[in-house]
Here is the input.
Amino acid sequence: MPKVVFLPHAKEVEIEDGGSLIRAAMDAGVHINASCGGEGVCGKCRIIVEKGAVTDGVSERLSDDETAQGYRLACLSQITEDVTIRVPVESDIDASVLNLPATPRKTARIRQYNLNDLKEKGLFVPPIEKRYLELPPPTITDNLSDVTRLVSFLKITHDEHRLEVDLSVIRKLPEVMRTDNFKVTATLARPVHEGSKTRIINVQPGDTTDKDYAIAMDIGTTTIYGQMIDLNNGDVLSEYGDFNGQISYGEDVISRIVLAEKEGGLDRLGDVVIATINKIITRIIKKAGVNPDDISTITLAGNTTMTQLMLKIDPRFIRRAPYVPASTLYPPLRAADLGMTLGDHVAALVFPQVSSYVGGDIVAGVMGSGMYLADELTLYMDIGTNAEIVIGNRDWLACAACSAGPAFEGGGIKHGMRATKGAVEDFSIDPLTLEPMLITIGDVRPKGICGSGLITMVAVMLETGIIDNRGKFNHDLDTPRIRQIDGIWEYVLAWQDETQIDRDVVLTEPDLDNLIRAKGAMYSGCMTLLENVGLTVTDIGRIILAGGFGSYVDLEKAMTIGLLPEIDADKVTFIGNGSLLGAKMSSLTNRIRKDIVEVTKKMTNFELSETSSYMDQYVAALFLPHTDIDQFPKLKARLEARRRHIE
Amino acid sequence: MPKVVFLPHAKEVEIEDGGSLIRAAMDAGVHINASCGGEGVCGKCRIIVEKGAVTDGVSERLSDDETAQGYRLACLSQITEDVTIRVPVESDIDASVLNLPATPRKTARIRQYNLNDLKEKGLFVPPIEKRYLELPPPTITDNLSDVTRLVSFLKITHDEHRLEVDLSVIRKLPEVMRTDNFKVTATLARPVHEGSKTRIINVQPGDTTDKDYAIAMDIGTTTIYGQMIDLNNGDVLSEYGDFNGQISYGEDVISRIVLAEKEGGLDRLGDVVIATINKIITRIIKKAGVNPDDISTITLAGNTTMTQLMLKIDPRFIRRAPYVPASTLYPPLRAADLGMTLGDHVAALVFPQVSSYVGGDIVAGVMGSGMYLADELTLYMDIGTNAEIVIGNRDWLACAACSAGPAFEGGGIKHGMRATKGAVEDFSIDPLTLEPMLITIGDVRPKGICGSGLITMVAVMLETGIIDNRGKFNHDLDTPRIRQIDGIWEYVLAWQDETQIDRDVVLTEPDLDNLIRAKGAMYSGCMTLLENVGLTVTDIGRIILAGGFGSYVDLEKAMTIGLLPEIDADKVTFIGNGSLLGAKMSSLTNRIRKDIVEVTKKMTNFELSETSSYMDQYVAALFLPHTDIDQFPKLKARLEARRRHIE
Here is the structure.
């Protein structure tokens, strides 16, 4: 990876080949003015290439002279070799500003579940296995039924006992057996419960043991993701995500429930989500190039409402106190019975729920991340509109859902948006000029702010004193970017002519309020759970962050604003889509399927609204980072150092 | 019951109030000439009422004088009080004839399975049970899911563990629970296999424990019978039988299989039999006046071909050597999945098979009759076109199918017919005049001969010397009824003007040959099984006769022709439709469902065509009653006594 050295800061950073120079600066903690998001519009991100060369970076905004002197626009420059870059310091900026204690930029790496570990521990035992059999053909003195022949042979040659044969297999067995002279491959589905029977769910002529596939699926409120998994080695052969077709009926679970209560609504929502699922199934089958008959199981994880809608179970009592879901456990089902375009033999396993607002997606994350086997006290967070928290270890698990509100997904924020092209996802500010450096998704002119960008922005503003711990702008600062419009204070991230929208992109004090309430809900949820089990934040040995949002958030920034407890970044694991991970992992090791019921029962649900200490915790968390700064000792030290420096 | 005394024989018999005099004579072993079957056409059955009075019996065939003297036609007279009847003896009949040793007329009574026995032994435990529960309503501090609430309460209050809840129940539970303030009735389906889970298959608001029903069904090649059973007391609330809709596609299983092999044939036959089943279900629901939602299970027993056709499993290999059925065991199925018009929650249990020609109907009979628990050596016979035999006791069971041919169902007999209106079902002959007394089903003019009538006829003719032990008529007898037409000898049962058809009804020597082959196939089947297990006919402690045919056959007559081994009539049990009995009993006691798999495995199937001794046994059985008359000592004694008497 090429190396970039920034002068005069003497900061060094490695970046992937072809990465943008502005991204390298952000990673190095070097501020370069840039408010157009990386599209070269504002022309402010001028730098000088002192050693080596960058690719591109030339612009009409630079004169020929400047270009000849080595000036480039950072946002248009790609790093393809080692370079030394000088950031021009404007005369009115005190160089000492550059030495202010900055937030260390560090994001824990996404942890891949270690399949080899499973294999070594003998836990790589998929719930579906294929067995190739060369059966003796029947004779008049040995004319057992076809099923008995199959079952007896499996008993003798593979020590398989207590087998049950599905009707669909009985129906096809006579022909399949005689297609390749009684050479067949039987697909065995292991029982989830000890003592239950192994089912023979499919038979195929000849030897197909090398073709053994499963589908894992995350049924999200907004998006649905599916993966085709090779059960012989755990490889993901294809994956595809799409918007849940239900979003046209409402963005959140509550609006879906409201529709489901109307005449025909439940059927419609059920059909729509199954249609999306079928679309994804078709795609991943095609992408992976597998024969559908070789797919034997589909595992689905979703929150409680999504699960009930998918199964066409009336969700009305989920949204009404006392918030009772229909069920937390589901029996093994047939995918075809649920309307899925999969073979008659395909078993559908639906992840169990804990409560109305801690659903199968969270159970899947707890199982798939291995948290339920952890020795150390672990905090699992899935951050989103409905944020869920699980605290515990192998011995106990406590969980709660926080109604964080939609701020993390851009909701309730004036220029909030989903994390799509044009969203400001990274941010830095010059503490003297108060000029910003923006990076947008797709490196285009900014359209708005996504959740992870918002967190970073607020953290930076807090550390640089642009805002105070109540989330109010420092109105005394001398910059046109901080202004009051119609009585509301705001900071202009990008001026109208630098944006994709025909107005300024701003961050307002009400935006800050909303973010503080969202992060306060989450943090106080954690604190309430800890308090209820007699522990404190210092007892936490590991944090697992799940969710699409969790994968993009800057960890240290999230700690700075008090969204996450302050903990060594090495102890934080990002698992991405925990729901999908759990669905996948449980397709690969039957151990998870067996453990799941006990784990679900073990997960003690707290209704925060009914937990007496929650409101106190919440009020205390409505500050940046918190009323009690001592809970964030590193941040406290940085803020104090900064104050000393300025004084 | 009124009493009838016949003079000069001084024979006395009781008959049900309103029964016909000719039937009383038949029961008493008194011969009265009558060849018109009881419709008063031939006018031959004249008797004199000496004491008491009969109802009706007056006819234009009697002169006013005769009527005044007390003459009546026996076939038109009903017995409604005690009477003494004189049978006029024609001058040319030696009275001694009346004292010839006659076949004792005795038919073992149909045994009803004793439900009280089951109850006393604690075995009256239906696989379906209902439990009424008054659940505590949820609160915010007790907001378990509806399913968890139900399952937990069942655990605490009814000690029910290892419960699994069907999706259909989860779907309806939220509403059902809240209909009657959390008072619900749960329907529990017990597992067939130890170690498996009890399933909650239905929930209903309020207390419905007194409404708990099951359907038992016999899927026959020709007819299908269904019963609605009250699981609270074992009562049969309604029953209905109908022709299997498949009969329009062929009379026997082979013709059905041939059709099933054609394009679309299997689907058609499957749909047709399900249509008949649904028709019967609708009828018995209506007749019993039950709420379909209170029906929880349907148990179906049928032969191997009927079972495979019902389940749409290709039966082609059943009719081809080496005669391999697709399966002998079926997993628990959902009735709705099979196309039955029953609730989603209704479980369908399909009786297992032993082989291609010993099917679920026979297994059901073995289970339902309790034979599989018997100490004594028991012979179970289901007599029909495809006759099945089981020999054994609680320790072992051997079985075989005999291709008896259709003679017992009237097939291959010149005037053979099914046991419907107009079929001669009982028969007596005057050994001197050789005039017959016929009784037909429905007391109408004869149309033909049914299986049980044929057996009686042949037995009577054998004992009276009309035919010899090879089944040939005694051509020397002086009567117009024995004659040769186109080289074939025959006996005229009824003259053209006495019949419903416009020709004589006759019994021919080829008819006798066919009957002998049919009974020979059955008897030699029994002997082959006995020989293979090292036993003889004298070891048999009990005979169980099943099948519609078995219920009508005159037991002693069947022994006389050598269809059944000669055994004390008290040791013979008629169970009627054994298949339906088994289906019913297994609905009432889960013990049977649990035992069934082991019993089926225990039933050793013999392919008679491949058993070396079978052909020898068969040839030896092609006599009346058998080559070895010593196997029928009582008949031998009677025949010898008769010979002495005549000499």
